[in-house]
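Fold this complex.
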Amino acid sequence: MFKLRPLTLFIYGLIVTILAFIARSTEQLLILTLINSPVGIVLGLRKRFTALIALFLVGLIGLFINALIFSNSGALLVDLSFIAIKEGAITSFLNVTLRLLVILGAALIFITQTNARELIKSLEEELGLSKDIAYALAVGLRMLNILERDAGEIRLVRAERGFRKYPVTPADFGSFLRPLLSLGLERAVWIGIAAELRGFAQRSPRRVGLRVSLKDLVIYSILILQFIAVFVMH
Amino acid sequence: MNILRAGFRRGVPVIRDVNFSLSKGELLLITGPSGSGKTTLILTITGVLNNLLNGSVEGDVSLAGVNTLTPEGFLEVPKLVGVVLQDPEKQLAMPTPADEVAFTLENLGFKVDSELIINSLRHVGLEVKAYSPTEYLSGGEKKRLCIIASIIHKPKLVIFDEPTANLDPWGISDILKYINRLRTEGITIIVIEHKARYFLGLADKILVMKDGKQLYYLDRDCLSGNYNYIINMVGGLGIDISKPSLTKKLSINSSRVEVLRAEDLWFKYPSSNDYVLKGVSISLREGDVGIIVGRNGCGKSTLLKVLSGLYKAERGYIKVIPRNSIKRYGVRDVFYVPQEPDYIFIYDKVLKELSLLGSSELTTITNEVPWIKEVLNESPYKLSHGQRRWLSYLIARAYNPKVLMFDEPTAGLDLNLLKQYVSWVRNAVSEGRSVLIASHDVRLLGEVATKTYIMSGGKLVEVSVEEAVKYLEGPIEVL
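Structure:
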């Protein structure tokens, strides 16, 4: 795949995420999903972000239960004797799932195609973003790979201890996230110290202003199309 | 440097009364047992403790005329000092080695020149991996990357925090050669290390710490090759200063039943075409302590995961045989303890983690490990790293496995903690369990091994303890 500018990808990911929240109807969300999710998921699978995708799929169970509890109204669709599934639950489940699929797709496009150092430079020099925010974003990108490895190890040991490999209940999520956060926090503190000891406080980027290439224009055009789709169909 | 008191909170000093001076080109070895305040001393010297972590420091630190404790002096520290932290995962922030080196240069206002970056990476043998993802580097390669990224701007002082931690002997040998090269180039160096024996031949001065205090400060006149004098002086402090002993072998009964048999195991990761295990066979009898040694990344951890049923072998078979009867292979017959203890915790309280134990077993454990009683209602994550590691061992024992498997259980442990671990393994063996350990820690071999294996190229070969020691000590002795 041709290389894209980190700033373009950042703006693209940010605006698509905002559009996912603005879009209200299933049709609007479907357009956004079809544009972003297949590309994002294919790129994610190629770069081994399978756990993130698997976690999303597992989360769908929770979403469906949530829809059944809070939005199960309207016309009756299926009566399973122990539970009646109504139109409202399906619509609500579909909308939230599509919204999350859009965000997942955009996030995967961004994280698989971006180099952390180029991102810092691009955000600082072109967008004038604070170096602290740019660095935090870049470290976050690097941490994703390490978190992926940690999550794999945690799943193995959970299975060994007789617990579900993939979290389903809130208690599962709690016990799954606790070690990830503990390790992540400890690493973040030391990476921060290491960066300061390598002169991060003295970093003073030069501003170069926005640069737009043909490839960036293609991406911005796709973004504008999605923008129009959401607002025209509003 | 003259530090009267320093700590993370005012009134609670972690280090007290430490003072030393260093001239250009000298190497100071700071050693001491775990918890003696060595890492806090680095944070103090570099001004991080009081300028970044809101800690309290009373005293003076002067580095080439700059007082690093003042905010203005602290800003000068990155230009003057290169710091290589213990764990590369807590230092490396960029996606590739070239980006990591460029990050330091950019921060300090140097021109980022790709030729300079590649040449500097060539110094540490990483030029061919300059643009490879950092996560694919081995432990030794990551450590070398940390070094070059910390010294690319040619600082006057380089500080190494536990440079041999988690490295295999080949990695240690590389680091020793590199530190020696820096020293001959006239760079002043501070090495903080509890495995002091690797640095005795390089050190111009040695500072021994215990409980946050300076216990001994030996200069070149005291040293002058008289290592026996130093060994006698610091013996018993938990510092690795002499070669490991081979005299305390575990006595074993020859008529023991076989508890684990694996034959012709083949395994590869789905993402790779190369086999990590190529026809590995192993057998353990009741009370055996098997130690598998080998280079970082040779497949030791993978083998443990396959043997404990966490990964499925592509070919071959594994049988766990308790009490002479063939029993269905189950995860609680074999329990794998990962190197990182945090992976194993499920609950928010220590007591819940040990809930599989009956009350009498819990009492036995609290008698064996008294501090556990004090922390039963604490979160496992609030414990120190050493305590968390102990808790992971206790959780494993709570599953009452026939075979316990440990992945690098002694990484980062000083000699005192290593002895506690050895005693714990001996207890487990006396209860009729067998133990299999993946490690490149030569200290373990002479203490507990009844069987030793060398893993290389996907194959496992059984060797004598002496041969395994020779294999691990070889790269260091060549120096």
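Chain A touches chain B through 46 residues (CB under 8 Å).
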